[in-house]
Amino acid sequence: MAKRNRLAVHPFAKFQAFLFGLVGALLGFIYAIGGLALDILISVGILGSLPGVSSGLGLGSSMAFGAILGIPLILMLAGYVIGTIEAHAYNVFVKFSTSLNTDFWD
């Protein structure tokens, strides 16, 4: 009978967290720059603003740059949790599979 390979849970979860963090950094950067550009256009008067929606540059504009740190942190946590679930699900699948041959190991 062939050796059934298992996926190491913690290293895989860390890898998933890293990948999700990279995606989060990109999304946070896009969110912050896009929000800044929109607020500048509203402040200059190129774009109009609905009452109570956006008044242009202000404290909210600077707080939007918190997304550069906030979104990656949230996505890293989600990536770790999802990676843990995926690794456990893979290991359960391998345990009950009879003909699965993989190259992953503990």
TrEMBL record:
Annotated keywords: Membrane, Transmembrane, Transmembrane helix
Transmembrane intervals: 12-34, 67-90
Domain of life: Bacteria
Name of this protein: DUF3566 domain-containing protein
